[in-house]
């Protein structure tokens, strides 16, 4: 479910499939609601009208939901399908692998930053229902539904990436300084939870370890903050081509 009207409209405009949109009866519609309904109508998405009593599900102590979008099931790609599509479109693989990243706010922020810089694949082995639950969608502002996702064992994924000459970098405290590494070309960044970090059995299978320098007394950054720093360093090294692509 998606409850943020700006997110619903963004997803509709970008072709993300919805099962239906539920609307409170006798709603005094603002311009954003009208645009959502008009866009949904052009895509033949069913609109369901319910009483406010049935719609009443609090997200906070002060607000009630009046419009909810229900996403259609998100396609789960295989890694080979995704690689074939990227190569067919002459695009370098730019992937994120999530290992033990447990919290919806972290996964959501990572997905939103990743989408902003052009990540074109998200590989995970957790339950897909957790990856696309309401909280993750909320924190990602819907972008997690716009990145191709592959549910796959992380060891199998790393093995397949190596076969395809895709560099794999783990983000860890004992790695090389991130901005001194060449991050251009086909790349996959492997992220773990900030408390537990990456499993050693995972990091040992990556090509290199990357570290973000910081002052003494700080054990680590939040995983979503670390991801943002690394992802934008890659974008900087690539010459920020994604900006010109998005503005064209």
Q: Helix coverage percent of residues?
A: 25-40%
- The share of residues in extended strands comes to 15-25%
Strand order of the largest sheet: 4-7-6-5-9-8-10
The string of secondary-structure elements, in order, is HEHEHEEHEHEHHEHEEHEHH
The CATH topology annotation of the largest domain reads as Alpha/beta knot
Largest sheet: 7 strands, parallel
Number of strands: 10
Low-confidence stretches: 58-63
What structural class do the secondary elements suggest?
Answer: alpha/beta
CATH architecture of the largest domain: 3-Layer(aba) Sandwich
Shape: elongated
Structure write-up:
This protein is an alpha/beta fold. The protein folds into 2 domains: 5-71, 60s Ribosomal Protein L30, Chain: A (2-Layer Sandwich), CATH 3.30.1330.30; 76-247, Alpha/beta knot, CATH 3.40.1280. Helix content is 39%, strand content 21%. It has 11 helices and 10 strands. A 7-stranded parallel sheet has the order 4-7-6-5-9-8-10. It has a 3-stranded mixed sheet with strand order 2-1-3. Helix 5 (104-117) links the parallel strand 5 (94-99) and strand 6. Helix 5 crosses helix 7. It is elongated, with a radius of gyration of 20 Å. The relative contact order is 0.14.
């Amino acid at each position: 479910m998606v409850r943020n009207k700006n997110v619903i409209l963004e997803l509709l405009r970008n072709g993300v499939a919805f099962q239906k949109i539920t609307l409170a009866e006798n709603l005094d519609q603002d311009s954003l609601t009208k645009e959502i309904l008009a866009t949904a109508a052009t895509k033949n998405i069913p609109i369901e009208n319910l009483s406010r009593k049935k719609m009443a599900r609090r997200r906070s102590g002060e607000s009630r939901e009046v419009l909810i979008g229900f996403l259609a099931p998100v396609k789960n790609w295989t890694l080979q399908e995704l690689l074939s599509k990227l190569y067919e479109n002459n695009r370098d693989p730019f992937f994120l692998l999530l290992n033990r990243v447990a919290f919806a706010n972290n996964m959501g922020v990572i997905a939103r930053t990743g989408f902003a810089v052009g990540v074109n694949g998200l590989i995970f082995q957790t339950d897909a229902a957790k990856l696309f639950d309401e909280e993750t969608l909320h924190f990602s502002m819907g972008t997690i539904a716009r990145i191709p996702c592959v549910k796959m064992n992380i060891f199998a994924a790393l093995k397949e990436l190596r076969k395809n000459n895709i560099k794999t970098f783990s983000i860890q405290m004992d790695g090389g300084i991130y901005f001194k590494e060449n991050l251009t070309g086909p790349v996959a960044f492997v992220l773990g939870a900030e408390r537990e970090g990456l499993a050693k059995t995972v990091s040992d299978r990556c090509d290199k370890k990357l570290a973000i320098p910081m002052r003494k007394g700080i054990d680590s950054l939040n995983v979503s903050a670390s991801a943002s720093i690394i992802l934008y360093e890659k974008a900087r090294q690539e010459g920020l081509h994604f900006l010109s692509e998005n503005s064209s």
